[in-house]
Amino acid sequence: MARLCSVSPERRHLLERVGAIAAASLLGGCRGAQMASPQALGTEAAGVSPTGPAEPSAAAGPSSVAATPPVPEGAAYLAVARGPSPAAITEAAIKAIGGIERFVKPGYDVIVKPNICVAYYGPEYAATTNPEVVATIVRLCRGAGARRVRVMDYPFGGTAADAYVKSGIKAAVEEAGGEMELMSRVKYAEVDFPPESVDIRRWQVYTDALKADLIINVPIAKHHGIATLTLGAKNLMGLIENRPLIHVNLHQRIADLVTLFRPQLTVMDAVRILMAHGPSGGNLADVKQLDTVIASHDIVAVDAYTTRFFPFADVDKVGYIRKAANMGLGTLDLDAIKIAEIAL
């Protein structure tokens, strides 16, 4: 119980929920054996209407994704930094919203979740999060006193070990003092979702993501053939199994993931963005250089802001953004929040 006492209050209830079922998963140790029934995973898969709460109307003003410390006086709600150095603009964006110390406390166990989509393209193809952006976040966390900073993802193509190397993220993270974690099968368990989840009732998730004191979500902005865009909320799919079933009710279930994982900080990599043929890319002609990073505690606001970089997308075409806002998980009203625009 000593470890439980060190977990931040906003995550303690999640840890208590998953403890018993995670232990059962450790005994099973097999992904196939953990496959849940459609009824357990969500009502849409069972062919009936959802029985969860109906979607409320969109919030009129800003709202916090989780029990995040309030925006400090004088700080921005959302920051957009532009410049030639990915490390410098990442640090500037985080500083503008209150600094990493707003989120990371001494002794914290931090999970950094980038998008490490494929094992066969380097970062220049914009299919994976920029390694300098990830490494800068790791370095800042360590500087704030984090006990442990782990970086992980569940790639779409190729092995995680190969993707970590090819993306350049492994070398950058280890140099910054972080750890690359291969997501072990025995750490997945089927867990209950919060009451706010509209369609998902239970799903297999990586339980360490619920035990950590803090999740920092670090997506890359890119085209997606089905969801229109892969942004912050969709990046959370790397923390679950049985991902094809998410597509049964794609946009609602992506929004539902936010209710469980509740990343307190989202840092959007828009250094290079993928304009077509996502999520895996493979053609440099599809890549656009923006030299931009966006940061906020509000995953919805970050995703909504990022859509302006894509002429074919908005918050209605990327349906999970509006659904998450309608569930009270963030704000779409960017005119009502303080946005810092920083040029380096």
Defining key terms:
344 residues; ten-stranded mixed β-sheet; two-stranded antiparallel ribbon; 12 helices; 12 strands; 19% strand; globular
Brief overview:
The chain has twelve helices and twelve strands.
Characterise this structure.
With 344 residues, this protein is of the alpha/beta class. The protein has one domain: 3-Layer(aba) Sandwich (Rossmann fold), CATH 3.40.50. 30% of the residues lie in helices and 19% in strands. It is built from twelve helices and twelve strands. The strands form two sheets. Strands 1, 2, 3, 4, 7, 8, 9, 10, 11 and 12 form a ten-stranded mixed β-sheet that branches. The relative contact order is 0.20.
Number of helices: 12
Question: Span from first to last CA?
Answer: 47 Å
**Class from secondary-structure proportions:** alpha/beta
CATH architecture: 3-Layer(aba) Sandwich
Order of helices and strands: HHHEHEHEHHEEEHEEEHHEEHHE
CATH superfamily: LarA, N-terminal domain
